[in-house]
Amino acid sequence: MAIPHSTWPAMSLGRLGFGAAQLGNLGRETTDDEARAAVDAAWDGGIRYFDTAPHYGLGLSESRLGAALADRRRDDYILSTKVGRLIVDDPGGVRRLDDEGFVVSGTKRRHWDLSRDGIRRSIDESLTRLGLDRVDIAYLHDPDARPSQALDEALPALIELRDQGVVRAVGAGMNQSAMIADFIRELPIDVVMLAGRFTLYEQTALDDLLPLALERGTGVVAAGVYNSGLLSSAVVSDDASYDYGPAPRPIIERVREIAAICARYGTDLPTVAAQFPLRHPAISSVVIGMRTASHVRSNIERLHAAIDPGLWSALADADVIPIELATQSTTISTEEASL
After folding, report:
1. Pairing between strand 219-223 and 135-141?
2. How far is the C-alpha of 230 from the C-alpha of 232, rounded, in Å?
3. What are the C-alpha distances in Å from 255 to residues 134, 175, 286?
4. What sections of the chain are H helices per DSSP?
5. pLDDT interval class at 121 (50, 70, 90)
6. Do residues 223 and 284 make contact, with C-beta atoms less than 8 angstroms apart?
7. Distance CA 205, CA 176 (A)
8. What percent of the chain has pLDDT above 90?
């Protein structure tokens, strides 16, 4: 049976969204004041799309984001969170920290649950942490090892919640494009979040997800656009990270070549990396993780920076990007960065 195109009316996410993983102490501690200042700076800069997850700091990101948005009119912003991992008590972890990259106490842990009841419980618990009565988008989070359960239980449970009006839109958020493409083929989901697979350096999603998303009318949010830090600095260091680990030497050398091309055209690597995904018509928004107000302001500046159109052609000539994406027009105005 043919799967119908999504009937979701595309939300105006804005060209730049606020990724709140760092509010969960990703990699190092973030203070409550830093978290609130970052959200305030995002709001002042026109950002109206905020993304979080229970996974981020064992619920800390959701709690901080909800507190920072508490005084904002709910209809003035869009918020997404994720399901698939429940946060449960773990009294035995009192003397250790979380072991999945967040500097938080190990007195809680993640428990995978993609059942219908688990999905509903996850939404309820997220709403409690956020202090909200609804979320706009719910993504199934990283179901890589559970594709059958994702298709048979978790995503249908999310679709049911959407149809009941509990959430406005549903989809999946992953670090791979192939499985997300499978989900779109099989189910009428609305929007997906793709991390790291459509960036200035790596564009594997061109082979499967992005053409299908255009065909089905499914929104795609690009995350991980700096490839775990590889593209986040104008000067690529010898210890740069890629895909959550140390970048191999050939990748570092290739990205240095890309950075040199950017410099010749009067801009820098992270500015081009932030803007590049928006050149594809399937991409609805770019979500970037931001820890502090200065991070927010620098990312907004990158999204609005003028780039010599000749750079895109030069990148295509160097086999960095496809030629068809070198000719896209993506002028970004202040209004487009907000709802």
Report:
1. unpaired
2. 6
3. 41, 20, 20
4. 32-44, 60-69, 116-130, 147-149, 155-163, 178-186, 209-216, 249-264, 269-275, 293-304, 309-317, 323-326
5. very high
6. no
7. 8
8. 92
Angle at 336 between CA 331 and CA 338, to 5 degrees: 155
Residue type, 299: N
pLDDT tens, 31-74? 999 999 999 999 999 999 999 999 999 999 999 999 999 999 99
DSSP calls for 216-279: HT-EEEEE-TTGGGTTSSSS--TT-EETTEEPPHHHHHHHHHHHHHHHHTT--HHHHHHHGGGG
Main-chain phi, psi angles of 233, to 5 degrees? -130, 145
Q: Supply the pLDDT for residue 328.
A: 72
**Catalytic site residues?**
56
Q: Which of 89, 73, 142 is nearest to 114 (CA)?
A: 142
Cβ-count burial of 57 within 10 angstroms (0-12 exposed, 13-18 middle, 19+ buried)? buried
Positive or negative CA dihedral for 188, 189, 190, 193? negative
Which amino acid would we find at residue 8?
A: W
Set out the domains of the chain in order of their start, with CATH numbers: 175-329 (3.20.20.100)
**Dihedrals φ, ψ of 172, to 5°?**
-140, 150
Residues 6+ apart with CB under 8 A from 118: 83, 84, 86, 154
Question: Residue for token digits 């089905």?
Answer: 216
pLDDT over 90 (residue 303):
yes
Taking only the tens place, the pLDDT of each residue in 241-284 is: 999 999 999 999 999 999 999 999 999 999 999 999 999 999 99
Q: Give Cβ neighbours of residue 76 (< 8 Å, ≥ 6 apart).
A: 48, 339
Q: How many whole angstroms from its chain centre is CA 164?
A: 25
Q: Are 325 and 316 in contact (CB under 8 A)?
A: yes
